[in-house]
Amino acid sequence: MNAWKHDKADRRVPAEPAPHPWRRLVALGDSFTEGIGDPDPRTKGGLRGWADRVAEELSTNKPGFAYANLAVRGLLVQQILDQQIEPALALKPDLVTLSAGGNDIVFRRSDPDRLAEKIEAGVEQLTRSGATVVLFAGPDWGATPVFSQIRGKVAILNENLHTVAAHHDAVMVDLWFLRELSSPGMWDPDRLHFSPLGHHTIAAAVLKALGVPHTLLPLQPKPPLPRSWKAARSEDLIWAREYLVPWVIRQLRHPAEVELTAKRPEPGPVFGGGGPAGPFIGGGTAA
Prior knowledge:
Low-confidence stretches: 7-12, 221-225, 229-233, 235-243, 273-287
Strand content: 5-15%
Strand order of the largest sheet: 5-4-3-1-2-6
Largest sheet: 6 strands, mixed
Order of helices and strands: EHHEHEHHEHEHHE
Number of helices: 8
């Protein structure tokens, strides 16, 4: 695994980010990597997200560090590979994150084995360049109505991606294993994307997987208030009406929409390193 090895004896206490070997990070993917659910008007595209937060930490004490984010909401695996791999390689990164497959599984009910084959082809291209590649195992959506039906496919894709990571010496960030993400406070009200707190938690997990000490303190959302079965189902119906149905309609109409572009297509310096985790409120729109 291409995680950087350091000699910090105690990783329980958040530390000032230490020097690391990477100088250029390029993030690839869909709305998850673009940062939907983590609005911040101070950042490019008006979104922060876990990738920006990781870049902020990696840029601290690292003169010349540059970061590009090519992720675009709503894309399927093949679209991500076709539209982002070659532009990413042209930027000559030494660290690449790749997250793909969520839209295929959730919206298209795609075959997870076939998706893993496609993703592996992309990973092979990226690792051939010499870059460290970071992959993600998807979160457990088991507690979310409708999405609980695809839980098995997400689990199969995750197992395949662990195999892909092992074959290509990639770094794996396992969101399914990150049980903190089961808290409602980690999710945007649309239940499709992560909240600022969720993105903050994922950024810390990425840095841990890379073996880089960081300043992101673990933050816990307040436990949800007890709800009756009737109240819970009522909330589910409101969610479906206000978020799920509009999201499905947007997916169906997506080909006719104005083409979306990446928020950081060119590598550049990262500003705001070491800043706060951001307000833990929901926001953003579904992919």
